[in-house]
């Protein structure tokens, strides 16, 4: 039986897909990249707030760490619902609203006087806003606008967060040290608001909005808005939870969050300061991690297009675990060559796990992959939240962060083994 070769709509009321020399998908990816950079300031600040808030308000590090943990947990738990909301209301509306909530929460912290206000403003408001700007945003843009080069684009958009860290960390650390933490919080708010016009004017929800096919794919009509966003997010979770790969991906990504956002991003600066290193120098090292994270994440996206994702994950987690085991021996009052080597090595691996994790979600869960990845990201942030709190508690109890470094190194070894257990989906 002959097959039809008509792949694009030809009815007069339907646009004909064009194939421009420069595809609009790359412009959308560029706007997404700039948006994530502008929103990255909020992720750079928590580690710089611990010492100033402890000194000004006499709050324990465990209390401050709890507020950060609420932020990180909500960042993850909001992500799958944000992905579903993007299917319902569009990317532009959800991202613009999220940036506004981030700005509001950051501004309100300037007038706080009690620890519960830190939890509410920074933990809840900024956590909810940042969760809607989470990696599910990058996954949704990639899934809609790209058929080819998805791994590379995922790596580039993931690296945007590291680029934002590179841009904002030195500035925020300088502000905190010379002018206090309040100007830094205002800077975060203004940075989030500055991106809103770019999102509203330049971002488009779907290739069909401009009469195009996805890059490397065939033209398709824009799907109708999906109602019941919350119900869909929960339904997708229940369906995915019946499969083994979901739990393995969630487990490995929880360890990923514990060993990056929860540990290093939150506690590296105060841990280095405990050993006599100036805050600006420690923040500068985190910024350098951001430089090499850009390289490592884009390279990981390139590798993901060419090699088996689960094996890449195993290598990444094993190398990260080894590096964390050596870190306690490298902390010192000044920056020395072994520490520089750690920063470069660890930076290359910071979020290199994201492109292969998204690829495995796409392989196993198809059209629901962005929402499934949102739930996997939720586990990432729950792991980060647990260690953000545990790290501050360990410092209060033991007077040192060393037990947390060693425990995270061991967890990374377990994540490497879990990644190898994930089976390839049969065609």
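Sequence proposed for the structure above (427 residues):
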């Amino acid at each position: 039986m002959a097959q039809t070769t008509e792949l694009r709509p030809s009815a007069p009321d339907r646009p004909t897909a064009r194939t421009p020399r420069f595809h609009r998908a790359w412009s959308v990816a560029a706007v997404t990249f700039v948006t994530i950079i502008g929103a990255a300031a909020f992720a750079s600040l928590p580690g710089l707030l611990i010492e100033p808030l402890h000194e000004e308000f006499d709050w324990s590090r465990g209390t401050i760490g709890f507020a950060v943990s609420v932020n990180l947990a909500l960042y993850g738990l909001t992500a799958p619902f944000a992905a579903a909301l993007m299917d319902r209301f569009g990317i532009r509306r959800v991202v613009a609203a999220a940036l506004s909530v981030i700005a509001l929460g950051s501004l309100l912290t300037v007038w706080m006087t009690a620890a519960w206000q830190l939890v509410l403003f920074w933990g809840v408001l900024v956590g909810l806003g940042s969760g809607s700007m989470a990696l599910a945003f990058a996954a949704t843009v990639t899934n809609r606008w790209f058929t080819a080069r998805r791994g590379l684009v995922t790596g580039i958009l993931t690296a945007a967060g590291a680029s934002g860290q590179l841009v904002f960390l030195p500035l925020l650390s300088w502000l905190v040290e010379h002018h206090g933490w309040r100007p830094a919080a205002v800077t975060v708010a203004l940075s989030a608001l500055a991106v809103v016009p770019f999102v509203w004017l330049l971002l488009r929800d779907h290739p069909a909005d401009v009469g195009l096919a996805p890059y490397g794919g065939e033209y398709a009509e824009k799907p109708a808005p999906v109602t019941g966003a919350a119900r869909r997010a929960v339904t997708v979770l229940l369906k995915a939870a019946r499969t083994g790969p979901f739990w393995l991906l969630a487990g490995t990504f929880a360890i990923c969050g514990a060993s990056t956002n929860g540990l290093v991003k939150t506690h590296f600066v105060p841990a280095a300061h405990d050993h006599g290193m100036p805050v600006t120098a420690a923040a500068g090292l985190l910024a350098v991690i951001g430089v090499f994270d850009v390289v490592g994440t884009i390279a990981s996206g390139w590798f993901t297009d060419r090699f088996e994702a689960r094996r890449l994950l195993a290598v990444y987690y094993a190398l990260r675990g080894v590096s964390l085991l050596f870190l306690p021996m490298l902390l010192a009052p000044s920056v020395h060559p072994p520490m520089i080597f750690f920063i470069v090595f660890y930076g290359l691996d910071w979020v290199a796990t994201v492109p292969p994790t998204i690829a495995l979600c796409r392989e196993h869960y198809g059209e629901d992959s962005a929402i499934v990845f949102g739930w996997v990201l939720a586990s990432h942030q729950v792991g980060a939240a647990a260690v953000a709190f545990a790290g501050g508690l360990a410092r209060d109890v033991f007077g040192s962060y060393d037990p947390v470094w060693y425990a995270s190194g061991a967890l990374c070894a377990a994540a490497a083994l879990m990644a190898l257990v994930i089976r390839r989906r049969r065609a």
